[in-house]
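question for whoever is on the cluster today: can someone run the full assembly for these? two chains, 1003 residues total. i dont have access anymore since they changed the login thing
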Amino acid sequence: MARQEQNDLLQGTLDMLVLKTLQLGAMHGWGITELLETGSGQVLQIGQGSLYPALYRLERRRLISSAWKTTENNRRARYYSLTAAGRKQLMAERIQWRRMADAVDMVLSMEPT
Amino acid sequence: MTGPRLLTRDFLARLLGSIRRASTEQRLDEEIRFHVDMQAAKNERMGMPAAEARRQAMISFGGQERCREIVRDGYRHRPIENALQDLRYSARALRGVPAYALAAVVALGIGMGSVNGVFTLLNAVVLRPLAYAHPERLVTILETNRDKGLTHELLSPVNFVDYRGMSDIFVDAAAWWIPKINLTDNDNGEAARVAAAETTANLFSVLGVHPMLGSGFTVDSALRGRNGEAVISHRLWQSRFSGDRTIVGRSVRMNGQLYTIVGVMPAGFQFPDKTDVWQLLEWDLRQHSRGAHFMGTVASLKPGISIDRANRALDGLTARLASEHRETNLGWGARVVSLDREIEGSFRPALFALLAASSLLLLIACINVANLMLARSTARGREVAVRGAIGASRQRIVALFLAESLILSIGGTVVGLAVGTLSVKGLLAWSPVEIPRADHVALDLRVFLVALGATIVTTLAFGLGPALHVSRTQPGSAMRDGARGSQREGRAARRLLVIAQVALAVVLLSGAGLLIRSVSKLLHQDAGFEASGVLTGDVQLPAGSYEDWDRVNSFYGNLLRSLRSRPDIIAAGAGNYLPLETAYRLPLVVVGAAPVPKGDEPTAQFHTVDEGYFATLRVSLVRGRAFSDHDVPTSPGVAIVNETLARQLWPGEDAIGRHVTTTSRFIGPLGSRLVKGDDHEIVGVVRDVRNTSLATATEPAIYFAERQFPFRNMHLVVRGRGSATAMAALLRGEVQRADPALPVANVKTMPSVLAESLNPPRFVMALLTVFAMLALLLAAVGIYGILTYLVGHRRREIGIRLALGGRPHDILRMIVREGLGLVLAGCVIGAAVAVVASRLLASFLYEVSPGDPATTAGVIALVATVALAASLIPGRSASALDPVNALRAE
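^ ran it for u. tokens below:
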């Protein structure tokens, strides 16, 4: 549809990361971006062009839910939080991720025989 | 009824959808604004000037519009957009596999076409209400006689008047009888036989149909007039009078008498049957006999009166009539049947049975397509896995598969509608079978709705299974191992589908087989005469110019003598009824037998035949002699009886030389017994000739000599050398020479008379055979398909076997055995189901029982042969595999 952004994460991975940040507590979109960036030591730059679609998609799959709340600065913001299904999904995806990462590691650490 | 509600619901859904969409957009806007504000605030905190901070925040967010678009795309439940997208995608995908798409559409087209064709007929013949006012209240009254096993008799005119008098049951009732009319009009001397009904004056008002031209009958009493009036059909008006609007008031000659045309009925109205001329009844119904049953009826029930209620009332009245008029009414009852059922007759069960058969065919086609789809869905396993991995929900994947099914079944429906319509048109144009009400066959809303329903049902029938099956596969495992696990499951499903298909084909073939056997048994059974080589045609002498019975006698005597003198004619004769026709049943008194009370006398069908009738039809004389030209009005009365009557009147004794008496002297205006006295000596006994139908036992019959009991209307029968057309020309020529004003009607070969009497079963047989053959073809394709698939799948195994020294022959046998195993299972199940399903055909079967072993064996042999042929192709290709290639391929 359009050009692929350089720093775009694999789609499934972004979903997992969003779920992970929300596991820490309800958060609005900007907060999630901030958390992901600081949490990754500024390595992961989340394009907002993919964050909001991801949030809407996760909500549609009932993995997260959202509601209007007021921030400490007294502004209205949409807060997202993890649902029970989301919690389960996160667990499953972590396991899957672990296996993939290990597998990739194993391949990368192969030595010539 | 559901239309408006559906519309409202749809509208509400759209409304809600657009409201939800609007609120989603608002929400997203607000979230983006918040996001940008927060980023700008952060930028400011890091020391940027306010304007720059905001600009940077906007840049870092990226394209807002694109974000909105993606959210919109992802968020909205867009059933219509999604469906269109799926359909576009599927159409593109199907273009890539044209052979698959074509095979599916053809299979579905065959199935849909058969359902459509049958339903179009069923709709026109059975479901469409009669085009009369209050068709649901119209009934016909039939007389019955339990003692004689009669359930479907016409009415005695006197009884009819009594039934019509039941004013708490019937609004009104009309009656008619069918004279044979030669019509001549003044401008055009050429005479033609027309289908006429001599009817009570109220026929049109009972039906609620009025002449489109003219004022109709003028009436003296409630039922009759006396001015010689006739109403003609639109068809006759167009064909014979060129649609001349001044026709009303003109006179025509019918059977020599003048009638004034007082009306033209609207187009399409020809009740009863195919009537072209309605002649106003001029005689008093009450002056006739209670014992003569020859009038057709139509009555309209009072609102709220059920058929049951009418039947109970008739039971009461007929019981009273039986006690009051013992000699004519003892044992007689009456019942009403709704008029549409009566008109549809056996075509109603026939068409329902055929609808069931065509549905089975459609089911077989669906199974074929489901099987194709299963094979394809296995191939698409990876695609589905990728879709699942990138977040497509299970519903979405099922929907995608259903979109493909939908395209295929729409294709099938379009082909089916075309096939169905064309084949019904072809059937009506070419088939000799006259189907009642079939002139109104049309594609109407109901046919379309059924086609639409069939489309939806078939989409689900063949699409849902494979779709669910595929969507169940785990994306991870599918990508890892090419969905081998699910393939095993798919293979079992495909085997079951092929077994089901074979079973259904066996059911249809059994039905067809049973009918073929019944019809051939009926056609080849001994009906008591030899039909082949005989041509028949009928002649009616007008009462005006042939008032004198001696003239009638000399006319037929001369005609037959000149016919017999022609070298091409082997034999010629005449009778007032043909075989399979039922003559009037009248009482007889056996001379010398113990006296019986009036009303309990034996009855027999009264036939009149000349001396050549039995010889021409090769009815063998069992005892005594045939008639001769010496049996004249002035000589002693003679008669010939059939074996059944001889056995009934003189069991174990010789009938020859016995005497019977009859008081019947006139039969309508058509026949008159001329001999003096009532006594007839039995001079011969002939073999039983079927005199009701081919399927029912012969009734007792007595034959009178034509010169002693002449009739003005006679069926001529001639046996000759040469073609039927040549004989027909010869017959017409001789009648023309005898009286140029006389038309010969209903010229047919005797075998076609026999065949026509079997039209309903032959009609079902022909269509069912076509359906069964198509079913067999589809099943063969199914067997071929699964074996080809299995061979493809087992290439490696086959390669190993061949590499290890397996002989190609063994491979072939292995594949064929696989195919025959499925077929055998299908045959066993199918044969069992067929026994039950064939009960639907029970009313068309003759001397064959559902589950007939010979039929079942034949069907299984046929299916096995076809299956063997279908297995050989993949079997041979398997045995011809190159082991090296086969092993490398994986």
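summary bc i know u wont read the tokens: Chain B touches chain A through 26 residues (CB under 8 Å). Confidence is low (pLDDT under 50) at residues 481-485 of chain B.
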